[in-house]
Amino acid sequence: MIASDFVRDVKAGKIKLEKFYSDFFNDLRKLDKSYDCFINICEEDAFKQLENLPKGKLYGLPVSVKDAICTKGIPTTGGSKMLESYKPTFDATVIKRIKASGGVIVGKTCMDEFGLGGFSTNCAFKIPKNPNDVNRVTGGSSGGAGVVTRALDSPHIGIAESTGGSITCPAAFCGVYGLTPTYGRVSRYGLLDYASSLDKIGVMAKSVSDISLMISVIAGLDSNDLTSRPEPVPDYSKSVSVKGMTIGVPKEYFGEGVSKDVSDSVWRSIKKLESQGVSVKEVSLKMTKHSLPAYYLVAMSEVSTNLAKLCGMRYGLELPLNKDDGFNEYFSRVRALGFGPEAKRRIILGTYARMSGYRSQYYLQAMKVRTLIINDFKRALKGVDALVAPSMPVVAPRFDEVSKLTPLENYKMDVLTVAPNLAGVPHLSVPCGEVRGLPVGLQLIGDYLEEKKLLDLGGAL
Amino acid sequence: MVVDVYAETGMIIGLETHVQLNTKSKMFCSCPNSGDDVPNTRTCEVCIGAPGSKPLLNKAVIDKAMSVAIALNCTVNKRMTFDRKSYFYPDMGKNYQITQFDTPLGSDGYLLVNGKKVRITRIHMEEDPAKLVHVGGSIVSSDYVDVDYNRSGTPLIEIVTEPDLRSPEEAREYLRELVSILEHLGVFDSGDFTLKSDCNISIKGGERVEVKNVSGLKNVELALRYELIRQRNLVKRGQIISRETRQFNPDGNTTHLLRTKESEMDYGYIVDPDLPWLVLNDGDVKRVSVSLPELPAGRVKRFIKDYKMNEEQAKTIVGDKALADFFESCVKGYKKPDYVASWIDTQLLKCLNFNKQSIRKSKVTPESFMELINLMDSGVITERLGKELIKEFVSTGVSPKAIVAKQGLGLKTDSELAKVIKQVLKDNPIEVNDKSINYLIGQVVRATKGQADPNKVRELIKKSI
User: Fold this and answer.
1) Which of A335, B156, B163, B260 could make an S-S bridge to B14, C-beta 3.0–4.6 Å?
2) How many CA atoms lie within 13 A of A457 on its CB side?
3) Does the beta-carbon distance from A90 to B52 stay under 8 Å?
4) pLDDT confidence of B4, banded at 50, 70, 90?
């Protein structure tokens, strides 16, 4: 059942929310037991919400939220030991908007610590398992959102977040839709920052219709986030025929490292669009090979400053003070104990990249490359409605395969997702068949604020 | 000559001055920017740096900072970012300070100090961190430290000079001019907000030494004087003045080592990605330029012309905006402004200094001060008595009329004077002539403790013989 039908039935009194939610939370706990997808299930808070629920677009609909997004009074850990006991004093803007539309926050989903990872294996509390095969990873960093969206039978929409591919990756690996909106389309206020110039809150769902519904609620200018965009939010709900549209196929996205099974699946979908009257043309994104280093330099530089506040002074673990501790010693002890290895790696690399003497070689150079990548996309998107490419180069790997990867091999998994994230253009991951029972995803990449076109194309597949 | 001594040492000084701007709200949130209240009550998720919060931007900060840049003859830059300056310290919620690094708001300006151009390298905006309160001692001896986030997010501008200053006195003079400009612009109140300088000083044969965070004006002069002596002694002994950062200790007017060059921090500046590019246009600059109020240099000229002051007087009075405003309130509708100016310049300032007060904090109002002037004008008291009376008036704030009434300080009546004259003539059995009469008048005035008008006394003595 799609979300809008569920909301209609609830409003019509055909579904009683009290009854629905007592069953729902039983299912949710079972789900969590099987796949380790929640850091917190918010049953009590959900029932409290039911007492006075606005009759809006999301009336009564269960919504899960990646644990990087602040929920007032409900722990928001970012998947880190550092914030295990952090209870924000405020709701993120997206949470405010969801609650005002009658959406019910049911739980906080599992993620890589502060979004730092591509498999959700860097979570401090538990590691979510892929519902298609529990020996395989969910993808990350929004892994929990992918699992819940895939495995929950009841209507539900997941709120996720992407910095370099954290929506696309789990959407593809789990087999659901995932929209990463234009940078600034959805307010970041209340998001635990990874890399502020890259972070985008988005949506994971089982249908294009669900994605359209949720994005229409959370998108739009927010005076509390100066990077949010002022353009009016269009009506995403009415789908338009794709006949006469043109899609571009960037050749660099089908090259080395992309498994043949995956690219074959994607090509089958391209043919399907072609059969509906969509023209296809080859385009080139020449800067693709520079996108990984540029992404990691920008993201690591920013995250190393964003995580600095976690030192045990106001935020972060609280440890007993040793007799001779200066603040430096204490902060170091807290940070050594509180952060996981990947967070430490990125903080150290990011700090190095912005040190005087290296700053212009690494940080500033990466910023320049980022501008070139933006121009690359603007060029490629001229004359086409969207680009089509595989979401991930492979299907979900097994845990034992992932554990053997070097950090560099690990980062290379993001090769197809980091460029659209660096450019800040919207992209939608769409399930496009299976390889040996495992889902494959393709991504539709559009021009700034052209989410609607992506949803129309995605709906046609 | 003092100045020659400085020239011999090859002393050069540059200042980086941090000024708290008097905006209504803080720089990146809507918390009130000032108020004498309970610690950690003027705070929100933004200014305590709560995970998930993001900065807003108070436009008033940009306008105020821009007015300073224009007043100090800077080029106003049109496209710039806010940047993150990263270092770990307990007073910073985020462990980075939002500042401007690559491109400041203003650059390449100057300030005239006694006719000499002191070049301004740059003016940029940044936020103040929280305040550390050292409980039970100083930074080194306290039992523990409290953190008050009320100050966190207060807007600052940092004004950086080229090393154009040549003596501690000149550095203080520069700051005095600067403060007067800031106060005339209405961006800074020396009563409620603070001004701190990092003082860079080097002398011939030594490296540059920085004395951090020196509050106010006088301490800058004292810190620099101490450094000059310390560094000259090092040179004399053949020792090395190394590149280092020091701290001023106001208790002994000395400085002590904070860190050496080797342990200098690397701030790892990056663009603050939470704040969009700040883009100004010619219209913005023009809007602020045309609304600039009268600045001290113009006011000095006007005071000389309109109030017949001499230049030194005008500079002294305009040097403190509150005093200049006080003066103008006093002379509104009064015919002898130069007379009031000289009373302010000499008697009033002397008394304020004696009480360690500024006109802003004192109990003297234009109305009560003019009462004093009027008492003298109308012959109720003499100038000599006025000079006595002002001391009590400034220190207590009791109105001059009330003091006169209470202490019976008005001029003696004719019959009272006649008694005194009789006594004086009895004590001084001399012939009264044109020469000796002046001596006798003096004796009478003294005997009445100044409560006698000499002309009146002359008249009465002549009558009595």
Assistant:
1) B163
2) 34
3) yes
4) low
The residue among B373, B391, B407 that closes a domain is B407
- Which of B57, B89, B270 lies nearest to residue A305, judging by beta carbons? B270
Q: How many CB atoms lie within 10 A of CB B151?
A: 23
Predicted TM-score (pTM) of the model is 0.92
Q: Which residues of B touch A196 (CB under 8 A)?
A: 54, 272-274
| B12 CB neighbour count, 10 Å cutoff | 17
Burial (CB < 10 A; 0-12, 13-18, 19+), residue B339, is middle
CA distance B363 to chain A (A): 43
- The ipTM, to two decimals, is 0.96
* Averaged confidence pLDDT in chain A: 97
Separation of alpha carbons A271 and A291, rounded Å: 28
Compute the 3-state secondary structure of chain A and give helix, strand, coil in percent, each to the nearest 5. Answer: 40, 15, 45
- Provide the domain limits for residue B324: 296-407
Residue of B nearest to A352 (CA): B268
Q: Which residues pair with A283 in a beta bridge?
A: A250
Same domain membership, residue B147 and residue B21: yes
Confidence bin at B36 (pLDDT 50/70/90): low
Which chain A residue lies closest to B98 (C-alpha atoms)? A305
- A226 closest CB neighbour out of B267, B271, B274: B274
Q: Is B54 on the interface with A (CB under 8 A)?
A: yes
Rounded CA-CA distance A359/A373 in Å is 20
B404-431 pLDDT, tens digit each: 877 777 677 888 888 888 888 888 888 8
Provide, as residue numbers in chain B, all residues whose Cβ is less than 8 Å from the Cβ of A302. 270, 273
Q: In this structure, what token pair is assigned to residue A157?
A: 């929409």
Contact in structure between A115 and A68 (CB atoms under 8 Å): yes
Q: What is the DSSP letter of B412?
A: P
Q: Chain B window 276-305: which residues touch A at a Cβ cutoff of 8 Å?
A: 276
Hey, what are A234's tokens? 């269009």
Say yes or no: B61 and B126 in one domain.
yes
Note whether B348 and B390 are same-domain residues. yes
B52/A76 Cβ within 8 A: yes
Q: Which of B380, B407, B434 lies at the terminal end of a domain, its last residue?
A: B407
Q: Please tell me the total count of domains within chain B.
A: 3
Task: Respond yes or no on whether the N-terminal peptide bond of residue B67 is cis (omega within 30° of 0).
Answer: no
Q: How many residues does chain A have?
A: 461
Segment holding B111, helix H or strand E: strand B106-113
Please tell me whether residues B177 and B80 are part of one structural domain: yes
Domain identity same for B232 and B334 = no
Q: Are residues B222 and B158 in the same domain?
A: yes
Q: Which domains does chain A carry? A: 1-286+388-461 (3.90.1300.10), 291-363 (no CATH)
B335 with B458, same domain: the answer is no
Evaluate whether A316 touches A83 at the Cβ level (below 8 Å).
yes
